[in-house]
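We modelled each protein-ligand pair independently. The example shown here corresponds to the zinc ion entry; the chain sequence is given first, followed by the ligand as SMILES.
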Amino acid sequence: MQAGVRAERPQGGARQWGSVRAMVLDTPGRRLREAELEQPRPGPRQVLVRVHACGVCRTDLHVVDGELPDPKLPLVPGHQVAGEVATLGNGAERFEPGDRVGVPWLGWTCGECRYCRTGRENLCDRARFTGYLLDGGYADLVVADERFCLPLPAGYADGEVAPLLCAGLIGYRALRMTGEAERLGLYGFGTSAHIVCQVAHHEGRRVFALTREGDADTQAFARGLGAEWAGDAPAGPPEELDAAIIFAPAGELVPLALRALAKGGSAVCAGIHMSDIPAFPYEILWGERSLRSVANLTRHDGEEFMSVAPRVPVRTETTDYPLAKANEALDALRNGRLRGAAVLVPER
Ligand SMILES: [Zn+2]
Ligand SMILES: [Zn+2]
């Protein structure tokens, strides 16, 4: 039996010892259900982590809305967990009980395939992802493979650091894919962009934030985080870009971004899901422009970004929701009503 699979406890009555309170997805497209589950036991090389905060990611929305195929069901979503090690499974040796750890999206890889053997474990065909193929952090306890947990930087509260674990990490990986680009466009200024903007500004890049039409609040937010210019995505930036990162899951942004690129520029799609990309003329790709996606993350990305973030220092703007309000947090993200990141906090 796969570790992390949880049996249901009968509902109702006082909270029982040895149980976990969680928000559960039974069927994609339905609201999450608050449930009391049997406490998971950490298997070999696993740790049981007490969740202090779990960031809400757009990928959670794609899982819950059924836009990603074949999730584990029923599922506890959530893959930006900040917490502390509660107990150790057999052979777990990397952490001690009480250590602060982060549990990210990449939950397990095979270590043997062509991708794993060449430093590209993010592409492992057998990879298991937290909060998608493994139960995640919309709960007060979660089990995780210690080899894929990240030590968390000091100086960040749990709620502040949680959004770094995916929004920050994936954004950082996407930023690395843009090479030395000086003029950087960020299409869609949500959780990930608000973190990447700070890193890019710190690196001396010129950041252009491209938002939904007329979204003056988000544009002001972007300027406050170091963007030199912020405006409407359809109208485009005031000058050519050397690179663009597309965070919003809207395929029509791809030709828009390509049109904004200088020759040799690159457009990077950072999301796991995107609506169809409309046909576009070859001339907007011509001139050695490139288009690529970024998929998942490696442990190396995680360790690198956890050391970069405090040096910037990256500050996250967050809105806390009690764990039981996970559906409301997802709604706010779906409707574009969030500024920065939503974070779920279990009640104790
Ligand atoms: Zn592999
Ligand atoms: Zn994510």
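The longest strand covers residues 46-55.
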